[in-house]
From TrEMBL:
Keywords: Membrane, Transmembrane, Transmembrane helix
Protein's name according to its UniProt entry: DUF5080 family protein
Spans traversing the lipid bilayer: 6-22, 29-48, 60-80, 119-137, 149-172, 184-202
Pfam families associated with the record: DUF5080
Organism: Staphylococcus pasteuri_A
Amino acid sequence: MDILLIIIVFGLFYLVHFTSVMHSGGLKVLPIITYIIALILYLIPVIFIKEESANQFENLMLILNIGVLLYGIMGVRGLWSRPLKVKIQELTKSSDSMITQQKYDKIESMKINLEIDKYKGIISLVMSLIFMITMSIKASSQYKEDFAFGNIIILFIFIAIFVIYIIIDTILRIIKGRWRLISIRPLLMSIWLFIFIMILLIQR
């Protein structure tokens, strides 16, 4: 069961990339069917792993917690696209007088990635939320307290990253003359983690 859950949770990382390509190609139904199958497979270990099997249950909680973080980061990165938009605008502006085929292809590729990232962001946050809800339902009060404390430490790490990114943003603003606001990503991730911690503590 542990192995099945690991394959599903981390396999979803590649599934998101695969279905985002299908989505950008105009395929809508196949990605939905794929995620329904993945959800059914996900529920098998979630339902059958009980707290009585301490080792398996701890592994379940740990894998789900990693899933919350991994797909939360992917979701925030995909939805906050300003840094990529600024880069596209800079390339377009620098190519106003004369645009080479190479630059044109690069700009078009980045625009496609922009659309794909939105899809990845939405799907990833939904997955992260599913893992949050699963943990809040399955875990006992003790497990919730333990994981809430662990995530508080991770929250402080993201806050520290946020402060560092603010400095980088300021430097880039001085050099380039535009705000890229890359600091918003760790800020949003900190908010997402705070929500997760609150869910764990409130549901005790």
